[in-house]
Amino acid sequence: MSKVVLITGCSTGIGRDLAQRLTQLGYTVVATARKTETMDDLECALKLPLDVTQSDSVNNAVAQTFSQFGQIDFLVNNAGYAIRGALEEIPDEQTQQVFDVNVFGVLRMIRAVAPHMREQKAGRIINISSIGGKLSTPANGTYSATKFALEALNDALRLELSPFGIHVISIEPGAIKTQFDETAQSHGRDILSNKKSPYQPLYQKSDEFAESMRQQEPGPDVVSKVVQRAIESSNPKPRYLAGVAFPSNLVIMYLRDLVWDMALKRMFTFVPQKEIQ
To answer: Is 191 exposed, middle or buried (0-12, 13-18, 19+ CB in 10 A)?
Structure first.
């Protein structure tokens, strides 16, 4: 049997594109999403319902995969979303929900799959992180905080699991042309549309920046190709950039806080408006 790949978040975007690509390449793909009807026209070996915020759902999906195929060679943790807005204005409940999907959801998947990979003495866990896990921007702090956390988990897990023959790999996409931005906007709609908010000028600047980025966004296939490289490499790197139009690795390595803050202030400078009672 071909290698088995379990992918989360396959309803749209990167997860869906990756499931299609790997299926065409001959992998046994298990595609998952919260709503299986979003995958009706997706061709792959198995489609399963999976909500990464629910331990029972995670355990059921992993158990069904092993029941049918007897192995999981690659786990791709792709499910995730963002919410836009100033940190002050995003309610605790919404912040916790983003962390539940983007961070704890990844942990639930790893805890369910890692024991089987240890028994196999082989496996790769590929986590879809973000360049936002290295560089944070205004009105995107909640999402970046989850990806910063994921980067820390990746670094620890890589050393914890390597003695068992398991590679842990981080994929760090830049801005990608998917439904991701629209979802982030919709989750923060009440916050962004509040005309009484003192952050309205910031939100306008942020919208302008996002719009300029959209003009050069590549499609999700650029990320899928990088994931394929991480899967097929005999000696995979700890992290891969994907769809990043500038030398972010150098920026991340050498840019100091002062210089980064100066750059962001140039991009996002705004005059706070008075709070409207």
So the answer is: buried
